[in-house]
Design brief:
The protein has about 325 residues and is of the alpha+beta class. It has 8 helices and 6 strands; from the N terminus they run E-H-E-H-H-E-E-E-E-H-H-H-H-H. A hairpin with a 3-residue loop joins strand 5 and strand 6. Helix 4 (about 135-170) packs antiparallel against helix 5, helix 4 (about 135-170) packs parallel to helix 6 and helix 6 (about 215-275) runs antiparallel to helix 8.
């Protein structure tokens, strides 16, 4: 089966297929038929939203929720028996350095139709073979399972990237890009939060009589639980690595300060004595004293010892 090319840079897109054989069907025919159909749309126009509202008997609040790309996950069983679930998933990254964007997606199911609605650009592609021969409830479950798999795989990939980058940071803390590590930690913490809320919504869906015991949803819920645990653990580990790197940098700074303290202890007495004898006064009895040089050296040593004791007392050394 050829992959459905449903990403539109500007404007809207929609695709309707009969689930029995995944043959494309016209919108009017899909709304009138009792055969199980799949309706996918992205960046829906007001006209498409009106038709969606009529089909599933949605009020303005539900339409507003569908159009909100930042809506938190939730599950609702509508009065007419239709089901509406909103989940959040990361957008497929186009470049390796790009931070994962997260968007909501709405899935609506009634007796004969399953609708998948992206509030903006569609970023996940499904093939016709993914859904052929399924009923609407099984289709919704498989869509959720496939999107959950992508979120879990994104957590795995980001964990591996963070592991490698953390090793680089600890190998040479002087070149460690802690800002990038902080960004990666924020991203995986965000994925953990969305995995946790997705899991709560899926858990509520699993309680529904229609989906109770659904193996795909059970597996999807387990995936979200695993993604949450992995992401939260990795976020905590990244914080520990950042603290360790900062501690190593502090130790290096302490070594530098210790060296400077030694230099200060040695050079300060020499500078003071040299400054005194460099005044070039005509009357300096110590210059004619046979023990003058020894007295000067002893003066430097005593002053140096006093400075060393003071540095030790202040714990600067």
């Amino acid at each position: 089966m050829s992959q459905v090319k449903d990403t539109i840079e500007n404007g809207v897109s929609q695709h309707l297929h009969l689930l029995n054989d995944m043959q494309e069907i016209a919108l009017k025919e899909a709304l009138a038929t009792e055969a199980h159909t799949l309706w996918r749309m992205a960046n829906p126009s007001p006209e498409m939203l009106d038709l969606l509202s009529q089909r599933f008997a949605l009020d303005e609040l539900h339409i507003k929720d569908i159009c909100n790309p930042n809506h938190p996950p939730h599950f609702t069983r509508l009065e007419n028996g239709a089901m509406h679930v909103i989940l959040r998933f990361p957008v497929e990254k186009e470049t390796a350095d790009e931070i994962s964007e997260v968007s909501s997606v709405s899935i609506l199911v009634d007796r004969d139709m399953c609708a998948l609605v992206w509030p903006g650009k569609r970023f996940h592609h499904f093939t016709n073979s993914d859904f052929i021969g399924l009923d609407v409830d099984a289709c919704a479950s498989k869509i959720i399972h496939m999107l959950v798999d992508y979120l879990l795989s994104r957590v795995y990939v980001l964990r591996e990237e963070m592991d490698e980058f953390e090793e680089e940071c600890l190998a040479d803390v002087n070149k460690a890009d802690l800002g990038r590590l902080l960004t990666m930690r924020k991203e995986i913490a965000t994925l953990a939060r969305h995995a946790r809320t997705n899991g709560i919504a899926i858990e509520k869906l699993m309680i529904d009589p229609v989906y109770k015991g659904n193996l795909r949803l059970i597996d999807a819920h387990e995936h979200m639980t695993r993604a949450t645990a992995i992401a939260e653990s990795k976020a905590e580990h990244a914080l520990n690595v950042m603290q360790a790197a900062q501690s190593l940098l502090s130790q290096k700074l302490n070594e530098v300060m210790t060296f400077l303290a030694v230099i200060t202890v040695v050079l300060t007495p020499m500078g003071i004595i040299a400054g005194i004898f460099g005044m070039n006064f005509t009357q300096m009895e110590v210059l004619t004293n046979p023990n003058g040089f020894a007295l000067s050296v002893w003066g430097m040593l005593i002053l140096g010892a006093m400075l060393a004791a003071f540095f030790k007392f202040k714990k600067w050394w």
